[in-house]
Each structure stands twice: as structure tokens, then as C-alpha cells.
Amino acid sequence: MNASEHVQATVAQIRASGRPDIEQAESLVEVAFDLQKKPKSPQDLIDALFLYDHALELSAATPLARARALAGRGGALRRMPGLGADELAQAKECFQEALTVLREAGEAEEVAEVEMSYGLVLQALANFGKAPLEQAIQAYHRALGTFTKDRYPREFATIHNNLATAYLSMQLAPEREVIREALAVQSFQEALKVVTLEEDPTEYAMLQNNLGNALQAMRSSHPLENLQRAVEAYDEALKVRTAYDTPVEYANTLANKANALMNLPDLMPALEQGNGDARPPPVAPAPGNPQNLLEAIKLLNESAEVFDKSGVTDRAQIVRELAASLSAELRQMEGQA
Length: 337
Known about the structure:
Elements: H1 5-15, H2 21-37, H3 42-58, H4 63-78, H5 85-105, H6 108-127, H7 133-144, H8 153-169, H9 177-191, H10 201-217, H11 223-237, H12 247-261, H13 290-309, H14 313-336
Helix pairs in contact: 2-3, 2-4, 3-4, 4-5, 5-6, 6-7, 7-8, 8-9, 9-10, 10-11, 10-12, 11-12, 12-13, 13-14
């Protein structure tokens, strides 16, 4: 697709202004950034790329201005609908070239912003087998050098959520898997230090749900306590997610909570309040979990009903089959009592 007529006219007007090339380039970058910040359609991003290409031509003799145009172009490519490996590879090249200059001459915040975007592109390329996840993690950590919890809480939370997702996607040697899982849990917990129920309920619910999933998956010497913490995280998510407002997310969280409950004994010692490292006293849990199985079955049946109403019939079938399996297990347990 070509740039829209009004954007072509804007470029022609700026380039005919007689101003120095660097000023023309900066004007083009400003217009492009406004278009890509909140694009109303894919055409806005196509127009932004057109503007960045002209800015790159005009800023060839000014490394810092060229680097900023490259960073903007990479950002526009990253946001293109139907993003594939080719577009991601182009965005990666833009960010890499931009960062060689920005790290030396750019402002700390803009460098961190580009590092964060670079990490996202590398993480997406890893899904295509085109980049190692370790490089994305390194970029995120460089961004955290500027985007600290106190000064930039929103960016801090976003990066930690991205880090957690990256850790969960990594494939390490078996002896290092527990470290990867623990790092993912830690990153979700870091994000939740700044994302609150009151200020950003949607993000809060997503993070709590993801934390619960990571706790369930984490191998450790205290798996039952992790399951307890997972249930608590799902309950926090369900303070926001409802069958009316977010039905699919609600059904997913119900199913996730049921999965934790079905593996949890009915009577567990209470967890200590405080930081996530606090350990409860060494009291053995009571055997058996008929109450938790009943609750899990109830949650799964509700989840299946909501999935059905939302048109997610394949997921509804899976959840319904699990509920039936648990019901059979519970009947067998009661027959042995």
C-alpha cells in the first residue's frame, strides 16, 4: 500500500519549505510519531513508515537525528497488523542501528524506551526461532537501569511482565528449570508492586492470573504452598474479572483456580502474611481433598458454561471433560470411605 495523499502532500510541503535538512527531518519524525502513537488504522502506520523513510534521507549527515528516525521506524514496523518474521527482522535492524548511536548520544529515557521495544521484537523473533530469548532479557534489563520502580512505575511493570513471559518461554537444562520458573514468579511479583487493583484493575487481574499460573508451574520443595499462593492470586484476579465484563478471561481464571484446587489438600496451614519469602510453620497438611475437588468441579462447570456462551466451545469441552473426570475420582474416593 502507498502513503495516503494528505501525507504525501505534507512531505512535499515540508521538503519545499527551504528549511535546513535536519529541521525538515525532525518535523517529519514528529508527524510520524503522532500517527503511530495511536493508529486508527493500518494506513496510519504505512504513512508513518513513509515519513520515516524521508526523514532518514534528510538526516543522513546527522547521526543522532538519523538514529531517532530509525527507532521510530522500528516502532512503526513492530506495530504493523499481521506482523511476521520479515517485518520483525526489519524492526530489529532499525533498533540495533539506532542503539549504536543513542547509547552514546541519546537521552537515558529514549534509550530505555528503544531497549524495551528492541526486547519485544527479539522476544517475538524468538517465537519464529530467529533470535535467542536471552538477548531479549538482556535488553529488558538494560531498560530497567533507567525505568526504575519509583520513577517509571508503568514501564517498570510492563518490562517485568515481559521478562516473566520470556522466562516462562525459555528452554534450559533440567537442572536450571527451577531457576527459570522462580525468576518468572519474581518478575510477576515485581510488577505487582506498582500495579494496584484501584489504579489499573485490568492489568492487575492479568498479572495476578499469570502469577497464579507461574506458581502452579514452579517446581520447588514446597509445592503445596505454591498452590495455595496460586489460589490467592486467582482470587485477586477474580475481584476484577467477571462473567459479564470479561467472560473469557473470567472462565480462564476459574479453570486455572480449579486446576490448583484439585491438587491441594483440604486442610493446609495458613500462610504467613508479609513478603513472598515468608514460610509457614512446618505443619503437615491433612490428607485428602474432597472439599477442594467439589469446589474445583463447581468452578469447572461454571467455566464451561461461560466458555460456551462466549463461543469458545473447544475450551468448554476440555473443561467439561476435566470436571467429569474429577467427579468420577470423587465418587471413587467416597466409595472407599
